[in-house]
Amino acid sequence: MSVRKNCGFTVVELITVIMIVGVLAAVAVPSFKTLRLNSQISAMSGDMAATLSQARSLAISKRTTVFVIQGAGTGTTDVAVGADWNGGWRILRGATLAAAVQVTRVQRMGSNTDVRLQVNGGSVDSAGTMTGTALNGFAFNNFGQLMLTDATTALTQAAMIICVADGISTSENGRAISISRSGRVSNQAVTNPASCGS
For 126, which DSSP code? Predict the structure, then answer.
């Protein structure tokens, strides 16, 4: 008498395994997307905080005005109020913005269009609500104090928010960067920011 070994799977077993894998994938994919977006937001807020600290340190050490402005161009004329910071930002050094020279290469938000950066000359609260008007840039004077790009008007504070664009995710998290009058930078998490543009 010969004994036959069963070496395969039945169709019922195969369909059951495929259904279990499908359910697990349906549950896990949205979590991975949120994790990826939150990771990008953290990285970008770290990049921006480092840029701000570098600009302030440069202003103090070189005893000159240092500008942080939006825009991916090489000159100073491609910056317009209300334009998008998502194209990048850069550091320039000089007595005035018109006479400033570029110090760093353009820092970019990356290729992800789901993440936004907004900059205002005001404050941001723990809910991610910003006050003040949109800024196309700002400056640090030779004492490291926060100024408008005219290099003569002091700002009491500035705020930035980095978050997921509206409509991309229902569980938005973001990062708020605040710059005090003295030029100190703080970086904090905000949950479900009020608006981050589309």
Answer: T
Distance CA 194, CA 51 (A): 25
Total domain count for the chain?
1
Q: For residues 198 and 190, is the Cβ–Cβ distance under 8 A?
A: no
Q: Which residues contact 68 (CB under 8 A, 6 or more apart)?
A: 51, 52, 55, 89, 90, 91, 137, 138, 139, 140
Residues 57 and 104 sit within 8 Å (Cβ to Cβ): no
CATH label of the domain that carries residue 86: 3.55.40.10
How open is the CA angle 149-155-161, to the nearest 5 degrees?
Answer: 85
User: And the tokens for 29?
Assistant: 């994919």
Range of the domain at 71: 11-191
8 A C-beta contact, residue 92 and residue 67: yes
Q: Which residues contact 169 (CB under 8 A, 6 or more apart)?
A: 33, 34, 37, 114
What pTM did the predictor assign?
0.73
Q: pLDDT (tens digit, 9 = 90+) per residue, 152-172?
A: 888 888 888 787 765 555 565
Residue type, 187: N
List the end-to-end C-alpha distance of the chain, in Å, as a whole number: 73
DSSP-derived secondary structure letter, 143: T
